[in-house]
Write a structure and sequence with these properties.
The chain is built from eleven helices and twelve strands. By secondary structure, the chain is of the alpha/beta class. It folds into two domains: about 190 residues, 3-Layer(aba) Sandwich (Isopropylmalate Dehydrogenase), CATH 3.40.718.10; about 130 residues, Isopropylmalate Dehydrogenase (3-Layer(aba) Sandwich), CATH 3.40.718.10. The strands form two sheets. The chain has a ten-stranded mixed beta sheet with strand order 2-1-3-12-11-4-5-10-8-9, sandwiched between helices. Strands 6-7 form a two-stranded antiparallel sheet. Helix 1 links the parallel strand 1 and strand 2. The two termini are about 25 Å apart. The structure holds adenosine-5'-triphosphate. The site of adenosine-5'-triphosphate (ATP) has 15 residues, from loops.
């Protein structure tokens, strides 16, 4: 493939969903950085979350879903699902509705972000469409509730294949599946059986399995042992936050939800209502999600330039351009401005 010359880009259409809480702040920052890198993007506004309820009468308006189906790529902020009122989680609806079956979350140590670990370099691959997130719960008799964990061979095989293909495509060496098949012999047993069967087709990628409680302990003891993690929906959710804690918190872990119909890029963190509107949210995870999106769009030169820019800003150890969650004194604006300055230097 011919190498792209820097700063000459074709135009893309991307659905931009600010979401709720800190969403508009961090997504606004990511958009500014991407625009500053010179990538030509036609941003198509999309509403979702609590902020969509009044104007559109829905937490996830059909227009937004249609736009993602049409343009195939979205950059999305976190959305709040009102508790009570019987609303289904917006994120779950979006992932299930568009069959965005693979959540991909790279977790890595970043120079300049001090934590107890300096050697984390793993990727979480989470099944996004079923398991305990199927939302099928009912009261059997008063005081007794059942929640169903739906596990299908098709989805387990598909996510396992995704994890191994990802490993192969990104020069990764090992896939580790976490499970609790010693207790959920049928449900987790099926997930494990599918992962084992798929692993046979990838002799070049090492495969191992761990009971999830032991896996958590092993991650905390030595995260460098792990490369690609293959997880069901609930385990993937929990392990994502656990792993975020290894590298500096939720402000630094990006993500992508990938399916056949398209891809939605979004940070692992939620809408963080405790800090919303204060100008102190860390936009790094949203910017990193934007970088994943640019790579997906084939804009690897701009992606690389943005990545080098935030790496530089963080490595410079200047507290004024570092957000509070990373021990700095700066806010969303200061960090974003520093990254843009560095991006424009090239
Ligand atoms: P959800 O259930 O929607 O995934 P959550 O319960 O995991 O959300 P978050 O909204 O992600 O919660 O917030 C968890 C904590 O992390 C909060 O204290 C929040 O302020 C902090 N946090 C999350 N994202 C950021 C960010 N980008 N910058 C700084 N702090 C953040």
């Amino acid at each position: 493939m011919a190498k792209k010359s820097p700063r000459k880009h074709s135009s893309h259409s991307v659905v931009l969903i600010p979401g709720d809480g800190i969403g508009p702040e961090v997504i606004g920052a990511a958009r500014e950085v991407i625009d500053a890198a010179g990538v030509k993007i036609d941003w198509v506004p999309g509403a979702a979350g609590e902020s969509a309820l009044k104007p559109h009468g829905s937490l996830l308006p059909k227009e937004t879903l249609d736009a993602i189906v049409k343009y195939k790529v979205a950059l999305k902020g976190p959305c709040t699902t009102p508790i009570g009122g019987g609303h289904k989680s917006i994120n779950v609806s979006l992932r299930q509705g568009l069959n965005l079956y693979a959540a991909v979350r790279p977790v890595r140590s970043i120079e300049g972000i001090k934590t107890r670990y300096d050697n984390v370099e793993m990727v979480i691959v989470r099944e996004n469409t079923e398991g305990l997130y199927s939302g099928i719960e009912h009261e059997v008799v008063p005081g007794v509730v059942e929640a169903l964990k739906i596990v299908t061979e098709r989805a387990c095989t598909r996510i396992s294949e995704y994890a191994f293909e990802y490993a192969r495509g990104h020069a990764r060496k090992r896939v580790t599946v976490f499970h609790k098949a010693n207790i959920m012999k049928m449900a987790d047993g099926l997930f494990l059986k599918c992962a084992r069967a798929v692993s046979q087709k990838y002799p070049d990628i090492a495969f191992n399995e761990m009971i999830i409680d032991n896996g958590c302990m092993q991650i905390i003891k030595d995260p460098s042992r792990f490369d690609v993690l293959l997880l069901d929906n609930l385990y993937g959710d929990i392990i994502s936050d656990l792993c975020a804690g290894l590298v500096g918190g939720l402000g630094v872990v990006p993500g992508a939800n990938i399916g056949e119909a398209g891809a939605v890029f979004e940070s692992v963190h939620g809408s963080a209502p405790d800090i919303a509107g204060k100008g102190i949210a860390n936009p790094l995870a949203a910017i990193m999600s934007g970088v994943m999106m640019l790579n997906f769009l084939g804009e690897s030169e701009a992606a690389q330039r943005i990545k080098a820019a935030y790496n530089d800003v963080l490595a410079s150890d200047n507290p004024k351009v570092r957000t509070k969650d990373l021990g700095g004194e700066g806010g969303t604006r200061e960090f974003t401005r520093a990254v843009i300055k560095r991006v424009q230097k090239g």
